[in-house]
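hiii so my PI (J.) wants the whole complex modelled not just the main chain, which honestly fair. so below is everything: two entries, each one labled with what it is. i double checked the lines twice but i was tired so who knows lol
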Amino acid sequence: MAKVIVDVSMSLDGFVAGPNVRAAEPMGDGGERLHAWMGAGGPDGPIHARERTLVNGAVGATIVGRTTFDLGHAPWGGTPWPGIPAFVVTHRPQQGFVGANGGKFSFGGLTEAVEWAKEAAGSKDALVLGPDIARQLIGLRLADELWIHLVPILLGAGTRLLAGIEAELAPLWEPVGRTVTHLHYAVVRP
Amino acid sequence: MAKVIVDVSMSLDGFVAGPNVRAAEPMGDGGERLHAWMGAGGPDGPIHARERTLVNGAVGATIVGRTTFDLGHAPWGGTPWPGIPAFVVTHRPQQGFVGANGGKFSFGGLTEAVEWAKEAAGSKDALVLGPDIARQLIGLRLADELWIHLVPILLGAGTRLLAGIEAELAPLWEPVGRTVTHLHYAVVRP
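here's the output for the full assembly
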C-alpha cells in the first residue's frame, strides 16, 4: 500500500522557508539557500543523485498544501511532478482547475486528499508538499516517513516544519552527506 | 588557543529540554529522553564512547548559564566536571560560593566568563552548558564549534536551542550514529 512521505530541506534551526514567503519568493527571504545542495555540482552531487532516485521512485501522487498550490502550482499551471496527479488540501475547492499541461488537480479536505492520493499512487508512494500539511499529517500519524535534508545554516526566522506535535521516529537508514545530512525516518508514534 | 564548544542533545524539532524546567526536573517534562542515548548499552554504545572521548578531551573549563547553575550545580555543589573550573554567566555574582567538593566557581558577565574560561582551559577547550548562553555565544560568534546529538523524537514543546540567530556552519566530520545522529560543526559566520 502506498506510503505518505514528507521530504523536505530544513535548516539546523528548524526552518523550511525563510521569512516573508510570497509569490515572488516562494521560499521566503534567504530560503533558496535550503535548496542549494540540489545543484548538480558540489560535494553532495552523488548523494543528491541517490536522493533523486529515492524521490522519483516514490512519487505516484502528491498531497499539496493550499499555500504551496497558490504560490507555486496555480501560477505555474503544471502539477509538481509532470503526469502525476496532485491532491490539494483546502476548504476552498477550485473545481475544474486544470494545469497548463493538462495536469490533474483534485481538491478536498485533509483525510480525503490523503485517501485519494494513496489510491492514485498505487504501488508508488504519495509525497507531501507544504509545511503546514506536513506537520498536521505527522501529528495525526497519517505520514509514514519523514525525510529531512538538514542544511548547516541558521536562518534565524521563517516557517518551521515541526512545532506542537509529538512523535517518535525510527531511522530507516544511516545518515549520509558531509555538508547536508540526509535523514530518513519512519514515524512510529504520534 | 582554547576553543569554545557547545555540545548538546537536541530533539529533531529543536528542543534541548522539555517544558516546565524546574529543580525536580532540570530537563523538563520528558526531557530526559534526550539523554537516553548516553546509557552504556543500546545501539549507539560505541559511538557514545567516541563522543565521550571527544568531550573529555575537550574540557579544560566550563561556561555555565545561570539557570543551569541554579538548577544543577548550586544544589549539587560540584562543578560540572570534577576538578575543572566553572565560569557562571550572571549579573548576580555569588562571590565566595565554593562547590561541595571544593569546586571552583567564578561569576561574571558573558564576555568576561568566556575570556576567563579560555584562559583557564589552556591547551584544552571550554564547554558551554546552558541553552540561553549557548545561543548567545553562537549568535555573537563567540562559540567556535557546535556539536549536536540529534535525537529522533518530536517533543512538541520545551526550550529551544536555536532561534533568532543567523549563522553558517561548516561540518567538521561526517555525521555518525544510526539512532542518534552526531553532528559536529564549526561556526563560520554569524
